[in-house]
Every structure is written in structure tokens, then in C-alpha cells.
Input
Amino acid sequence: MSKTTQIKEPNADHGRIQQIVVFKLGQEEYGLHIDQIREVVITPVITRMPQTPSFVKGVANIRGNVIAILDLEDKFGLADHSSKRSENNFTLVIESDEYKMGILVYEVPNTLSISSTSIEASVFTGDQHAEQSYIAGIAKLDKRLIIMIDIFKVIGEQEMQHVFKRQNPQTQQV
Amino acid sequence: MNQDEKDQEYREIFLAEALENYTEINRLLTVVEKNIGDSQAIHALFRITHTLKGNATGMGFDKIAELAHVMEDFFGEVRDGRIALGSDIFSSVFKAADVLGELIEAIKTPKDVKYRGIKTKLEVLIKNATEGTMRTEHHPASAQVATARPSADILPLQAGDESESAGSTQVAFSDLIQVSVKKLDNLLNLVGELIIERDRIIANNARSHTANEFSRLNRISSDLQYSVMDVRLVQVGFLFNKFHRIVRDASVKESKQVNLKLEGVETEIDRNILQVISDSLIHLIRNSVGHGIESPEERIKKGKTAEGNIMLSATSESDTVVITIKDDGAGIDPQRIKQKAIAKNIIHAQDANQLSERDLIMLIFEPGFSTMDHVTAISGRGVGMDVVKRALDSIGGTIQVDSMIGEGTIITLRLPSSMAVKSTLLFELESQTYAIPLSYTESVISIYKSAIHKAGQGLVTVHLGNTIHIVFLSDLFAQSVGDSRGRYASFDQLHGEQKLEVVVVTFNGKRIGFIVDKLLQQKEIVEKPLRKPFDTISFLSGTTILGNGNVCLSLSIPGIVNALFTNQVNKTVNA
Output
């Protein structure tokens, strides 16, 4: 979490080099601070779960841990149905004290070193709702534009519970 | 476990706690010595000596109790500012702590410890202090002198008699160690994974090697698993013994006379299960005092003894622990429950008429139900009974209430004695493997589609004279993730001659048949609880990892049945 605050205050430390992991969602490039990622694995068999929103693909066994697998393309509404997916997709394993989860990516993510000054912290994306806050900044690199996200805000507790609750009335209509 | 062993175990536990208290007293004393104004440490000292006194009294270690009592009084005076601490006072307090340590040590290796001298010394200090304050009321200016002086005079005089008697500075070690539950949970998880891994290896090599090759691995890992489970077992007595106080407080508040009797306190149960149900038990006991036991006058009028009786007992039956709470109070009136439930819109009047008395009583576990017309201090807020139910559901326990008006009520809780291993039936559904706990499974039947009928809002079949509500799990799960398929989607697609595998479960007297794709095998699974963000999923109780490395979901029958059932209740209320 402390890393995201660093990203938000680029002026605090002039030009510090940060390592970020960049992955593609839809046609856009997204970035996560490398400290938030534990490992990248080839996506194991996913077991679908009942009573979950559609962006939760299910759970998988990653090194003996049962981990939630999320599809952020689905979550962000970026799903690109035109292009065919290769079978060998990857899972970024994210770990915090509270959560362990995997994020599906379709291309090998790569690591980039960027200067913290090239991250623009305050971004207004035209969406005043709470979800906007998961965008921690925009990194500009030559012609590339990388959207830095705060992964724990994306699947923050309230957010998740909100989604689950919305889901629940439908479960009642059995 | 016989009486001697039990005593021995209690003594060991007391010893461990007492030694810990003793260490803590010493630590706090050094803190206070460095900073006399540290009121927090003084408060802590008061509390610890108080606890120690209570524990020692309970165990019958009178010497420890006496000394701890005086120390408690002493720290009470210090706390209230009537004794000002000085270096000479400290020496006698430390001395008292040392003697206390020796007394505790003497439980293990009996020896005669002189403690009266130091006890008297502290008593004198306290006496002087109280007299001192009495005087200060008249002469505020002399307060400081009055409190400090006498102690200074007396202390050094008596220090000689039992000081430096042997071993006062020896470090004491207890035979028990305290381990955090988190570490135990972790250990159990690891053992669980080991068992899964073992099963996988054995399955993979079943053909190439003889079974003997793995029998040792099998035995050792099973023993390890049971040992770890055994470590997590605690006696229900640790919880039950706290109820004396709870019953006392509750009965004083309600001006009732209640006698609590405990039975089977040595019954062992998984520590986490005991923790999950502790609040529920407190609630049920308070309810027994609040709702069950009548006031003394009323009881005498009914020809009962003025003092009400509550019996809390535990027994273990193979894999279950049965806890019963029995009172000889007024009992529960099913008709009052019925009226109340109808008035509160919990159930429709027509439905209520069809319910048996026992089912009517079960309505008290519905959310928002409370039979008391007025709210009392300890019960009757209308929250709780549904919480009790949910706590039990979460661990796969059941509750049953039997009541006779005017005679009393018996509440029976059936709890798994261990959370670790679950006997389950594995089945396949849409090429995924699920586990269904055998404790809820009544039977497995095979029927043709033609035997299933659309009735009212759902599907039913009749098997061996029982009406079974049929649920297509695939439809239920699809709907739960937002698929808006129809009520009969899977059913209508089936060919008329299709044979279906049905797992029949019962929960709370409701019989439901789940249609599954394929039955696999019975298996003992080590279940992992659902972690965030899945902890809100009610259809599942946990997950396990199969031999092939895939995740298997373990169904929560209470969760599914409740979802199905509350839905039906809602519909009748709305209709």
C-alpha cells in the first residue's frame, strides 16, 4: 500500500526509479507496482464458483493455496471478443495480508523501470464514482500510456461486498 | 478420563497460568519501580493478583490465594493513591512476589514455604494506609508523612525471617507451553496439504507399486493428522466454568434464583468450534434465565422450588459432541410463538397452522423473532436466536428444542468434535467436482425424468413414500451467478427416458434431492474455509484440493437449503 502513496506523490522524491509490471487488458496497457505481485504462473484449472459476479472466474490451486481468479477485462468492460485468445494465458498472483488472488492476463507481462516523475498522479477519467479511485496514475512513456492501478482498491472489500449483494437477490429467484 | 487425571490436568493448567502471572507481576513491578506514576501497570498488577487469587481459590491453593489477596488489596491501595511507593516498599513487594513464586513452585515440588511474615507486612502497610487516609481527612497537610512514614519504619525490621530461603531467584519453567491458535491452524493446514499430496502420490503410483510401499507413509501421516487434531482439542469445562458467573449475573439482574449444574465438563472439542459457539451458548443460557426460569414467587405458586435449575451438560458421541441446556422453567408455548410469528410477518397464518409444535418452536430462530413483550436487560432484544442458528450452521452443527409448558425446556446442540476432516460424497456437475457432506446426506437414488413432477413453484418426486423437493444444482448455480435461465430450464431439456442421479439431503426437517451429473466416491476431505473475498458465499462451506490438483468445492447444505427455503417463505408472505 505504501507504494501507491509514493506513486501519488511523485514530487516527494524526484525521479526515483520504480519497477512496474505491465500487462494488456483489451487494447490498453495497465501497470501494477512490482511489489504487489508475488509471481506469474501459467493459469491452472479454474473451478467456477456460485454466487459470484461474472468478473470472478472462480478459484484455482496455486502452490497449495486456493486463490480467487479475477478477469479485469470483464470488470473494466474491456472484453474483446473479436480476437481469438491463445490457450496459454497467465495469472498474476497478487498477495496482501488480507487477500490472495490471481489476475488473468493473455500475454506475457513485462517489467519496466520508470521514473516516478513520469507518472501523473491525479487523473480525472470522467467518472466521479468510487471506482475511479483505483486508478493510481497514468504513466507516460514515449508513445505508450500505461494506466497504473491500485489493485486492492479494485477488489476492495466494500466493492466486492457491494457486487455480491447485488448478486444475491438473483439467487433468491430459484 | 478419570478424576485423578482430570485434577492433574487442571493443576497443570493452573500452574502454567500462575507462573505466567508471576512472571508478569515481576515484569510490571520493574516497570513501576522505574516509573512510579505508571497507573496502567498498577491497574494491571491489581487485575493479575485478583485473577490469581480467584484461580487459586478455585483450585483450593489457599496459601497462594491468601497472599494474592493481600497483594491485590495492596495494589488496590496503591492504585487509589493511599500508599505512596518508595524503594523500601518495593523491596517488600518484590519479596512478596518472590514468595508467591515459591508458593506456586511448591505445587509442583511440595515444600514448606513461609509466607505469613510478608503477608502480615503488607497487611500492616495497608492498615497504615487506610488509617492514614482517615487522618488526612482532618489534616490534609500531613497526608504525605502519614502514608509514607509507617511503612518505612516497619519494613526493614521483618525482612530477615524468611528472606533468601532457597531458590527465590531461580527461573521457573512450566511443563506446558502456550501456542497461538494461528500457529495451530497453520499446522493443520499444512498437514491437510500433506494428506492431499499423499493421496495424489498414492493414486499416481497405484499401478506401478504395491500398496505396501506406501502403508508406512499412510500410517505416519494419518497419525500426524490425528495428533495435530488432538492438540486442538480442549475440554468444554473451560467454557462451561465461566457460566457460573454469567448465570449469577443474569439471575441477579432478573431477581431470580438460579442454580447451574455442569456435567461432562471433561468432554473434548475442537478449540475453534468451542469459540464459534461460545457466544451462542452464553445467549442460550441467558435466555434460559431470562425467559425460561420463572420468578421465585411464581415458582412457589406452581409448586416448584423457589430456586430454578439449569443443567448444562456435554457428552461425546463418535464424531459429534452433544451439548444440552436443560431448565425446569416455564417452557415454550408453541401457540404464543405462532401468534408472534404471524404478527411479525415471519410466517403466513395458513402455513403456521400446518406446522407441528416442534416446527413452531423452531420459528424462534427466524431473524427478527423475540417472544418477550418487553425488553429486559439481558434478553429480549430480538437479536440472537437467529445468530445462534447461523453460528451452528457455519460449523455444520444442529440445534433442537424440546419443551413442555410448565415443565421446562431442553435445548440440544450437536456439534462436530473436529473441524478438520469431513466425510463427504464427491460428485460431478458440469465437469467440475463437488463434495457434499455425508452428515446431511440421507440417500442416493436414481430416478427417471418421468418420476419428477412440476408442482407449484418447483419440482417434486415421491420415493419410498417420501416427497422430495427436486433441485437441479446446475440451474441453482447458474442463477446464482446472474444467469436468468428459467425455473425448469434443465428439466425441460431432458429426454423423457433420462435416468437421473439424485443426492437426497435433509436439513431442518426439509428433504431435498439435488440432481447431479455423476456420482463419484466417498472421501474424507480436509476442508479449507473460504477466504476473502469469498467469505460471503452461502452455498459453499469451503474448498479442498483433489488428488489431480484441481480445487473441489464443498457444498454448505444449510446455506443452500436456507436460500431455497427463505425464498419460499418470502413468496408466501408477499402473495
